[in-house]
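Regression test attached.
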Amino acid sequence: MKPFFVGLLAAGAVSAAAQSLADVNVFLGTERMGHTFPGAVVPFGMVQLSPDTRLVPYALPNGSYNPDVYGYCAGYQYEDRTIYGFSHTHFSGTGHSDLGDFSMLPVKSGQSLLPGDGKDPATGYFETFDKQTETAEPGYYRVQLERSGTLAELSASTHAGFHRYTFPAADSASLLLDLVNGIYGYDGKVLWSSLRVENDTLITGYRHVSGWARDRYIYFAASFNQPIASYRHRKDDQTPYRGFYRRFKEFDNFPEMAGKSVRAEFTFAPNEVPLEVVFAISGVSTAGALANLRAEAKPFDAAKAEAQAQWLSELRKIEGTFLSGDDQTTFYTALYHSLIAPHVFQDVDGQYRGLDGNVHRAEGFTNLTVFSLWDTYRALHPWFNFFQPEHNRNAVLSMLAHGEQSVHQALPVWSHWANENWCMIGYHGVSVLADAAAKGMAGVDWDQALKLAVSSSSWRGYDGLGAYLDKGYVPEDVVGSSVSKTLEYAYDDWCVAELARRQTPYHNFYTGTDHPNIRLNKAYLKRSQAFKNTFDPQIHWARPRLSSGVYKAEFDLLSTHNQGFIEGNAWNYSFYVPHDVPGLIQVMGGEKIFVQRLDSLFTMELPDEAIAHTEDVTRDGILGNYVHGNEPSHHIPYLYNWTQDRSKTQFWVRTICRAMYGPETNGLCGNDDAGQMSAWYLFSALGFYPVTPGSATYELGSPSVKSATIALENGNLLRIETVKQSPKNVYVKEVLWNGQTIPSHSIYHQQLIQGGTLTFVMSSKPH
Amino acid sequence: MKPFFVGLLAAGAVSAAAQSLADVNVFLGTERMGHTFPGAVVPFGMVQLSPDTRLVPYALPNGSYNPDVYGYCAGYQYEDRTIYGFSHTHFSGTGHSDLGDFSMLPVKSGQSLLPGDGKDPATGYFETFDKQTETAEPGYYRVQLERSGTLAELSASTHAGFHRYTFPAADSASLLLDLVNGIYGYDGKVLWSSLRVENDTLITGYRHVSGWARDRYIYFAASFNQPIASYRHRKDDQTPYRGFYRRFKEFDNFPEMAGKSVRAEFTFAPNEVPLEVVFAISGVSTAGALANLRAEAKPFDAAKAEAQAQWLSELRKIEGTFLSGDDQTTFYTALYHSLIAPHVFQDVDGQYRGLDGNVHRAEGFTNLTVFSLWDTYRALHPWFNFFQPEHNRNAVLSMLAHGEQSVHQALPVWSHWANENWCMIGYHGVSVLADAAAKGMAGVDWDQALKLAVSSSSWRGYDGLGAYLDKGYVPEDVVGSSVSKTLEYAYDDWCVAELARRQTPYHNFYTGTDHPNIRLNKAYLKRSQAFKNTFDPQIHWARPRLSSGVYKAEFDLLSTHNQGFIEGNAWNYSFYVPHDVPGLIQVMGGEKIFVQRLDSLFTMELPDEAIAHTEDVTRDGILGNYVHGNEPSHHIPYLYNWTQDRSKTQFWVRTICRAMYGPETNGLCGNDDAGQMSAWYLFSALGFYPVTPGSATYELGSPSVKSATIALENGNLLRIETVKQSPKNVYVKEVLWNGQTIPSHSIYHQQLIQGGTLTFVMSSKPH
């Protein structure tokens, strides 16, 4: 693995009792597949202010998809030496790209307003930098820009980005605001943009863009600490300002700029004082952005201090000791990355843009966005139920609001900024609801939740669901990735059944009737057994079937492409029955073959061709045929818990923690996926994992921490202790809860959140 | 003149005591230059639902401006026999085009979703009709469509269009909603559009368009009286719905349609009952449109009855008797056309989109839009002060809100739908304010009004204003049409002076100081004398000057092009000093030459070349060199009142009423200009006219009515009576107010609105 970022490594002491910002490497995952960003953000902040190191057009000149787009989901790759601007919105770790709004860059005055090619300075304004000058901590990023000689510093609050630019002395300072640039940019991404110079220290504006999100509105209001001396803009589209010609000079010092390709330069007089910008955003209106600006504007140093205090407060909720500084950085950086999405998506007055395009007001909750649910229902939302239950309540209520605003009455699938992207498969919003219900979330209308879970899972037009309801499986000739869909629908249906069960009054013995929810529970329990319909009884593997009922003849257990699966192959997906592992063991042909197959999964030698086709992961993310860089396998190491070979769970969990995670820039073996990869690590490092979201049970694994004290939101303390913990002692001899041996392989959520001590007695040998 | 529309003529009885809808010919002005529309609207309604008879691209195939655009400002020309749809927004009588939103058309199911070329039915869905089947009244329009065999009927409420389509029996019915079509359409007008099928009888959506308005949002919610059986759409742009592919069928029965070129078809099962649609609009949101829909939805017949009751209520406020049925129709159609703009631009809850793009709530007034102020400050807003003072208060408060939302703190110039188009010249918003103040409008913050009048007239970047302030005239080498601008700025400045004067406490005799408004009044009075600086003392004509001070050498008194004037020539504009006619007479060289020139103006033989270059008017709109089809001359016939030859005012006013107005489809000699031409007629037909908006004085002319009783909004009745009125008795022997001879050539607003009888004793000879 590559050398760890030096400045942070030096500060990363083993066994530090109080955490510091140096425990986080914000560059972790910025290399290759992690898709994280190094810029400034506060926990769940709406602004993610970060450098964009390349502009990647969505399409190649021949019109086809540009494969480079994928690497720039967060706008940044660690090896780059160019910066096109600091933009205010970034996904963290996602597998699809978008955002990158409102790109600002300090430049020498009067040069080209085009970004340029990143090579020849004559082509545009792009900046270059020496990697040695780039440093970052949670809530703070800085870099020395070479072409303009400007020191750039960034910080953030919930709704605002904070910029400080120290220009070379005596130069007049210019700041570019490029309304065209964006992530997932392509010709025509900007449907419209507007920029108003309200007065000599205040500008407002917005973009209406069609990127990955079908169409998305983002507004801003930005304040400068120095008056604008003059400004200009260029516009490369042909939209005229019709009443305008012959009357004013449109492109110089005219305060109403608008069009599809507006790039503006603001020039400031030479000043000893660095230029500071507070740049607030809103999904509602420029008035909303202005209110956000008023609420959060402060000097740069104060903003930085506040942002970092917020991060410290989060980090200090877990006081851990570790076997190494690397483990410590890995752990706290995972914690950092788990606290970025879903993030606030409302103005300070509670107003937000809903999925229906209308402006709503969040009553009794904070509206959130960026729901990458196919990823995050697995461990991130369970992590929130454990570590950030109030945040998860906001997530649940935001999802319910989304469902109500949906014309399909469907919970989010992959949604951001008032858009549904329909990305990946299943309707896993129901899992988040069921998990919240299982873990006793208060303040939710569970009747509404159940109603939306039912409507989400009843929309026959959705992705093979009609056929699934008719046949008990998704036929591959109806829609691709059919086995993955059957398996995930089955799990989701179990979640709906659980939701119904948890709010079902008992059978009425006076009238002899069941509550309607009992019937719902039974119906969905039946649906949840559909996984059996996709297992070929001849070979005991999940296998695509056709509408006729026959299994698809051509079938490659190892290939991930066109075999009925997505982000996985038959080996990976056949273990995907998180809600009924005993039933899975049965359809696989019994425990012996189940264990044999698990063993093989982790140890088999995969053909190079199969590796080449594995999506979204680097070579480090593959362990035999087990693919940790993608999500469908995340629960698999824990499945040994249902067998006599529980120690293998312990071994593989520790192996994965060591091999697939690290503290360095390429420390993530696949996309962090909005925090799912990080949440897997956090749970596993603490010794337990939610194999079945929607149940209140955690499976016990093997902790990699030496100890940890977690300050729970309810005020209780949960202490994780280990005995004889060491890199070699990966096996667990015994687990004790408050000193009492736990006879089972699992522990209940309700136990843990009461506070207490969970002790793992470690050993170098399987127990 | 062409034959008057037969159905209405039959009903147009002379001297009807109670007015009927048949007194209005809604087709008046739909031929050639009038630019009115025949569709359904209620007084000041936000919806103007009317057929669009041609789709005129903004640009010709070679990219240059398409001159045909001009003829279709209201989407309709009387001679056309094709209909592309019934759209919900139309300007009335303007000289520039825009709008035409949400075009609907009943069609045979399953045909092309493209509009077609209007000739070959194979090219698209356009309809044809037999002119005999087209009839219309205020609030109601009907036509039999030939291709689909459907009877189409339209009505309107303030926020909604009402459609009733009677399809041929047994055919399944289809309804197109074309989100691409529009007036002033061109490639790329639609920045984005969206369409949601909320349920089987409700659709919502919006367009974000860049047409004449730089960018404009319009939303809708539409309800059907029958369930949608199925629907589909086509989209010709390249914006993908990215999460979507492989998952759903995007183009059939998928309820979230969006893109830059969406055309949708909704199919309904065969039904004996005609299809009814209530189509509500909003400038705020689909939620706003839905609230508007809920507030105003009703069956078609009820909507029609209510719309027509509203019109009757307005028409019956003036009980007139006339010399002919033609006069009666001309008068009541002018009244109808004076009650269309500026129209309501807010939702039922008072929310509206402001010039700053933000959503505001109108508190204490109704927000209005469509301010064609260079036209309407002259007679339309004075007409409102007389006949609709509450409406004018809404206009004034809407203009003040606009000014506050303006980044320039500028009152509207030519604004519509939250956009400023900067069309034509001057800052005549100040005239509307001054006229309202002069006529005692209550409920206005006059300090705010004065503040915005001053800021509007202080913006040096505006259209030569900086040079005007420096030199006392607009130099022609700085900006074109310089003489027109100098003259109009001078008048506007007098309006600001009047505004300041009306709220100026007296000089403080204790301190010896003036109130700041006294200084403002003096400064603006001085500015208002700038008209003298553009009169060449050698020739006594207004004449362009250069920055050096010298008058421009090449100078053609008759040409309207590049001579320093706009929509007029030196002859027309030299009479434009409405605020200081004695001063004008002086700079023109005295009353004798003044009268000679006025006489010549009306009687001279204009060279054909000069006529060909005269803008916006038909041949009928020119009387000698007097051009009634354009506004700069509208006050000129009344200028004889300042001379010994008042009878000539009487003669020419009657001549203009007869020659330039008529009851037929081409009854307007130029653009109605949002009601300005009609308001001129209304005043003149009643015998008085506001030569100097901003003063409380009307000049007396020669009425063309026999009598009229006007029910004023304050409850008083104003009676206009004539003695010996006849087509030949165009001269006024004596005018009496409540039986007392008026010694002057004018009468005060405050007199008239107290109610009483104004009697004109007519004669065939000058007095």
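Expected vs. actual: identical. Confidence is low (pLDDT under 50) at residues 1-16 of chain A.
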